[in-house]
Amino acid sequence: MERLPTGIPVLDRELDGGLPAGSVVTLKADPASQSELFLNTFAGVRESLYLTTVRSAEAVESGLSASSVETGDPVVEAVDGEGPIESVRTYLSSIPDGGTVIVDSTEPLEDADPVRYRSLLADLDERIAEAGATVVLHALKTGGERSRNRLATEQVADVVFDLRTVVTGTAIENRLAVPKFRGGAALEEPVKLKLTDTVSVDTSRDIA
Hints:
- The chain is an alpha/beta fold.
- It contains 7 helices and 11 strands.
- A 9-stranded mixed sheet has the order 5-4-6-7-3-8-9-10-11, with helices on both faces. A two-stranded antiparallel ribbon has the order 1-2.
């Protein structure tokens, strides 16, 4: 099966070259984390379509331009806040063959009627498979009750990235777990990462 590199060397090594073409990926992360570094990196590897559901297209473009990560030249589109499900549907035909789609973030879509949201996921999955592309669903952790359709997001996903950020009195620790990898092997343990202005491996030793 063809693998599509993520642009993050440590992940590509752990995932035998990257993500299987046609994969739906869910990236779970805290809103206050550096998870956007992953999105920026994913956007720079291949031709990309970036759908923003909360921030304006201008804000996303500004963030990409200011990023230290090589972001390429993704097409950025703002999803209509009044009808996010139908708005995303209008872009399905624009998904580039072998490319990347980023949905940032899933919450406005997950707040929709469950039947409509699951139908969108099914159509998105079908289109991604047809295009040999990959889609990254940025699913933020709210810290409280999860959104009504988060279970569907995680069930449909072929791959789940779970970014765990812990803040202590002396350090910020980031670990990336991959608990689900349909068509491949999930990671046995989380990868410790350093998230500053780029994504890299944290080689510091843990002290008990």
